[in-house]
Design brief:
Radius of gyration: 23 Å
CATH superfamily of the largest domain: Translation factors
Helix content: under 10%
Largest sheet: 6 strands, antiparallel, barrel
CATH architecture of the largest domain: Beta Barrel
Shape: extended
Number of helices: 3
Strand content: 35-45%
Structural class: mainly beta
Strand order of the largest sheet: 1-2-11-10-7-12
CATH topology of the largest domain: Elongation Factor Tu (Ef-tu), domain 3
Number of strands: 12
Number of domains: 3
Order of helices and strands: EEEHEHEEEEHEEEE
Distance between the termini: 21 Å
Length: 209
């Protein structure tokens, strides 16, 4: 069984557990997704299922995607994503995948694009400490200081410097499913997840570490 789904982040909120403790959760609209392609070891060398999510108008798709959905006899979707599985023989094109693939207590990994925060210095980007106020400096407290050793006469690749912060794929692992609502196709996931509101989330089953 495929225990993966595509969803959208709605908002973050909090609930009370049975002991009266506050539990921070993220409300996610997950699915329903449609199976659009099936990968097998015989044909592709690996087992995977491609899911489609989020309706879209035909005029907003390119010709290749329009032809793809018409060939599969599936309504037009905005997002296509493959998820690996142990056995893809149990799926058929057009099959619907809903939130009932998860249950309360399951642990999931959530992958998404993090919030973009623009150009940032090393203090905000890498949690560098500020430089001292004394010893004659007045306007360099937030600078990064030396770029490296004097001997090589060059800056090594990977040296932490100011640059673009966020706006890249991030995976948060081992988040617990707090609640599953089949009527509204929503999940309550314990803790925070990456992305902005209405941002895409790729949710996959994970074994608790």
């Amino acid at each position: 069984m495929l225990k993966s789904i595509i969803g959208k982040k709605i908002c973050m909120t909090q609930i009370f557990d049975k002991n009266g403790n506050i539990v921070p959760v993220t409300l996610v609209k997950a699915g329903p997704c449609i199976v659009t392609n099936i990968r097998t070891v015989e044909n592709n060398g690996y087992c995977a299922v491609q899911l489609a999510f989020d309706d879209i108008e035909e005029k907003k798709l390119n010709r290749s995607n329009i032809g793809f959905f018409k060939k599969k006899k599936i309504s037009f979707k905005k997002v296509l994503k493959e998820f690996k599985t142990d056995n893809s023989d149990d799926f058929v094109i057009g099959q619907e995948v809903k939130v009932d693939v998860f249950k309360v207590g399951d642990y999931v990994d959530v992958r998404a694009i993090s919030k973009g925060k623009g150009y940032a210095g090393v203090i905000k980007r890498y949690n560098f400490a500020m430089q001292p106020k004394t010893h004659g400096q007045s306007d360099k407290r937030r600078s990064r200081g030396s770029s490296g050793a004097q001997g090589p006469q060059r800056v090594f690749k990977g040296t932490r410097m100011p640059g673009h912060l966020g706006n890249k794929y991030v995976t948060i692992q081992n988040l617990c499913i707090v609640d599953v609502c089949l009527e509204n196709n929503t999940l309550l996931i314990g803790g925070s997840v990456p992305s902005v509101r209405s941002g895409l989330l790729f949710i996959s089953y994970a074994v608790k570490i």
